[in-house]
Every structure is written in C-alpha cells, then in structure tokens.
Amino acid sequence: MPQTQIACPRCKQMITANVEQLFDVTADPQAKQRLLSGQVNHAQCQYCGYQGRLATPVVYHDNEKELLLTFFPSELGLPVNEQERMIGPLIKQVTDRLPPEKRKAYLLKPQANLTYESMIETILGKVGITPEMLKEQQDRVQFIERLMQVTTKDVRSELIKQNAKIIDEQFFALFSRIAQNALGSGQEPLARALIDIQTQLLEETEYGRQLKESVGELEAAQHELQEAGQSLTREKLLDMVISSKSDARIRAYVSLARGGMDYVFFQTLSEVIEKSTGDEKTRLEGIREKLLGFVADIDKQMEARFKQAQEFVESLLAQEDIEKAVTANLDRFTQDAVDITQQMLKESSEKNDYARMG
C-alpha cells in the first residue's frame, strides 16, 4: 500500500501514513476492509507519540447497494464550494469506471455525512450490522488502546480482569488485524509491544487459553498428518479423529484435512457407530455431530474466501488496462485468487473466450 509524507497533526514533524480518499468497492472489493479496519487515514507519530485518524475527505461507493457516500471533515474549515471542488473529481472517477447500464440515479445524489461515524454506520447497516454491534466493536478498540498505554504487566492484568466479558473471538480477531497492520506498515516497536500484550492475553483470559490450546492441537494434528504422508487413507483419518482427546483436536483435523471428509468418510463413521454400543456409541455419535458442525463452519469460511477472491479478480478484469491493474495489485494476490484465475483461464480456453482474460 503506497505511503504518503504528511505533517504530524500535533508536532508538525514529517511522518509517513497510508492516505486514501476514494473507496470504490465496485472497482476494488478490498477497499471496504481497508476503510473499516483503520488500515488507512491513520497517523502514528514516532516523534511525539500522536495516534489518531487523519482529517481527509472520503468518498465511498458500492454500485451493488446503490450507495455513494461523502464525508468532509469539519476541522478543515473549507466552504461548501471548496469541498465540492475536492470531492467532485473523486465522484467523477466512480462514474467513469461504471459501464453506462450501471450508472443509476443514486450517483446524482451523493449522501453527505456530517460525521465519520455516521458514514461508517451507514456502510455497516447495509450488511446488517447495527449501531449496538458497532458500539461493542468500539469498546474493544478503546480497550486495546488502553492496554497499549499501560506499561506495567500488573496494571494490565487488572484491566484484563475488568474487561473479561469483551475478550472473545471477535476481540482477538481485531487485535490480530491491528498487530498485522502495525507490522505491515513498518511500525516494528508498536508491533513488538502488541505481541507482548497478546502473550499476556493468551495466558490470562479464558478465551485466550482456549485459543492457545487450539494452536497447540493444530500443530500436533499437522505433525500427525505429515507423518502419515502418502499412506493417509479415510480409514486412518477416521481413526485419528475418533482417538482425539479434545474438540480442539477434532477441529484441527477438519481444518487440515477437510478434503478427506467426504460422503464415504461419514458413511464409514456411521458404520462404525452402528457396530458400537452403550457409552462408546454415544461418544461416537457426539463426535459425528461435532464433525458435521466443524465441516459446515470450514465450508462457509472457504466459500466466503473464494467469493472475495472472485470479486477481486473480476474487479481487475473490469479495468481498461488489465496488465497494469494486475501489476499494481500483485501484493493482494492470495492463493485463492490464483486458483480463481486459473479456473477462469481454463473456462475461457474451453469456450475460446480469450478476450475476457485480456
């Protein structure tokens, strides 16, 4: 992500920051995530310690949801005609990217937002996230900020105890994204501090201990599957699952060997259950129920990942200069995106439709 030299809002020293004004989800599906996660338009000054959102105009567009939002920070103190002069070219970019049949009436009436928060609430509301849910996420962010401000482990432990109810899966996911963003933007001291805090959270919270156990079980399951190597069969995989001592180990097998858990696998498990009696039969039925739930979860995650990858590839194919677009987005190519591209190339080859792939 390109960085821009800006003056720190507090001490005026020159610092680098990721500044982005146009978030066109239709052309760039990842834009929403960058906006909502705080990866952009956020200053972190290594000189005076300032941290905060940058006062910059924002235009957000989603053609599928017929959403065109604008936000102009009041602290910039510019008259309306100057605001329109700055935002106008961004809206023109949005319109120019769309084919004529997708240029609808909403483009003529951008929704102006008086506050940044109201813009975010509107975006999230379109995907079913309520203000209450947003408030919970804000509480998590504020708690993480407080943890970062505390320098002693004892005081941090007390804060962790007081906020135990919000330290859940969503909290750790948010914490992980913040740490990754810090590392990705070259803020190594901050990233190291966050890793230290994460270690303490893993040790001192109930969910943290569960997460730590899951990681350990995942590593153990991976080692066992690697040892089996080419000799791994559905029967051996089933034996591993049945021998699992914890739900975390079962989930680990599902995440690593989902491909082997097909109809034949579950049919074999059902046959084993039918031959069992008493407590053992009850135990195996419980394992089957857990397996089905874990498999459904993994399938949903894979479906979401592939959908995101497909939207990314489709956004590149919609550009006038596909080669230039691909080169500019090489760092965003995941394995899923590569797989989708190969699948599209195969389909184009079968249909002799090479124009679509540039």
Strand content: 5-15%
Instruction: Give the mean pLDDT.
Output: 86
Shape: globular
What fraction, in percent, of the residue positions are helical?
55-70%
Low-pLDDT runs: none
**Biggest sheet character:** 4 strands, mixed
Judged by helices, strands and strand pairing, the structural class is alpha/beta
* Cα-atom radius of gyration: 25 Å
Task: Compute the number of strand runs.
Answer: 8
Written as H for each helix and E for each strand, in order along the chain, the element string is EEEHEEEEHEHHHHHHHHHHHH
Number of continuous helical runs: 14
Strand order in space, largest sheet: 3-6-7-8
Distance between the termini: 25 Å
- Number of spatially distinct domains: 4
Walkthrough of the structure:
This protein is α/β, with parallel strands linked by helices. It has 4 domains: 4-129, no CATH class; 133-204; 210-304, no CATH class; 305-357, no CATH class. The chain has helices spanning 31-37, 80-97, 116-125, 131-149, 153-162, 169-184, 188-204, 206-228, 234-242, 247-257, 263-275, 278-317, 322-328, 335-351; strands spanning 4-7, 14-17, 22-24, 42-44, 51-53, 58-62, 67-71, 111-113. The strands form 3 sheets. The protein has a 4-stranded mixed beta sheet with strand order 3-6-7-8, sandwiched between helices. It has a two-stranded antiparallel sheet with strand order 1-2. A two-stranded antiparallel sheet has the order 4-5. It starts with a strand and ends in a 7-residue tail after the last helix. The mean pLDDT is 86.
